[in-house]
Design goal:
Blueprint lengths: L4 E6 L4 E8 L3 E9 L1 H5 L6 H23 L8 E7 L3 H18 L3 E5 H12 L7 E6 L4 E8 L2 E7 L5 H11 L6 H9 L21 H13 L5 H27 L3 E5 L6 H8 L7 E3 L3 H4 L3 H12 L23
Parallel strand pairs: 1-4, 4-5, 6-9, 9-10
Antiparallel strand pairs: 1-2, 2-3, 6-7, 7-8
Helix pairs in contact: 2-3, 4-11, 5-6, 5-7, 6-8, 7-8, 8-9
The structure holds 5'-O-[(R)-(carboxyoxy)(hydroxy)phosphoryl]adenosine and zinc ion (ZN).
Length: 333
Amino acid sequence: MDDIYTLGIESSCDETSAAIVKNGREVLSNVIHSQIAIHEQFGGVVPEIASRNHVEAISTVVEEAIKQANITMEKISNIACTYGPGLVGALLVGVSYAKALSYSLNVPLIATNHIHGHIAANYITHKELKPPFLCLVISGGHTHLIHIKSYTEFEILGKTRDDAVGEAFDKVARVIGLGYPGGPKVDKLAKEGTPTIELPKTKFDNLDFSFSGIKTAVINLHHKNPEINKADLCSSFEKTITEELISNTLKAANMLNIKQIALAGGVSANSYIRGEFLKLENEGYKIYYPEPILCTDNAAMIASAGYYKSLTGEVADLSLNAIPNLTVIENNK
Ligand code: KG4
Ligand code: ZN
């Protein structure tokens, strides 16, 4: 079989990214233009500013990805672009660019789900990983516990009922004065603290999560007692959240008798969460997570997910639109 070169394009939030991935797993280039410095001053992503920046960056980012991969445009077999979920104006930039390029190169366009991309980041880092496995997707916008039945079949086992984990990290960080994006800053500061502060946990009779209670508790503790040790607060916050993540993941793993567990999404870059999940290997589980650069938004993961979708023969056409509230199971097309 001929090698497949997929051009991935990602623009769902504040990263403009393009990548060339060979046969779904081998990254030849992964160019990421981050807008963090621009949004930092506002304490979060400003959608309109994000869209404008994607427009300015996208051509250069795609050209750079092709150059770094050391291939020509003619070598591109197909184009995978994120069409949701995400910010509508931001998504539209990548979708429009991908449509135009697929038309001019006469190659198939693959409409790719951003969350499927986060899951697929694991295929790049772990060449041996194959479905079925469990995947805990923890990012700024999503918290999902998913049964990966095949490369393109998913079953949601649990999800957050309110805030996403990353959202809770970012809000806590903002309130205690660590800045944006908060996740990496909480991760760093927590290492200097001890988890001595009791924080509330949620209990549901299914595998759902909730993080707004713990977020509010941390914020209230800080407001009531501004002298409270921030490192201890961060460390306690991380510990409580990790216990909830592990508890539900283990329940699901036992229910389905699955030993392969993957983490995905920006929050899976968290060193404490990774460490605690890794401990499960002593109990017979195999834990996977992507290398840090593939945890946060990037186009290589989109190219990988798009490659597997292309194998099903499902191709998009020029009527493709951005779907900001696209779900893991794509029934809201
Ligand atoms: O996957 P991602 O880049 O974007 C979404 O699809 O949402 O995730 C971004 C999120 C942010 O909330 C950021 O604070 C969080 O991932 N994050 C982390 C760490 N690195 C990024 N959270 C905790 N610890 C980290 N080391
Ligand atoms: Zn993401």
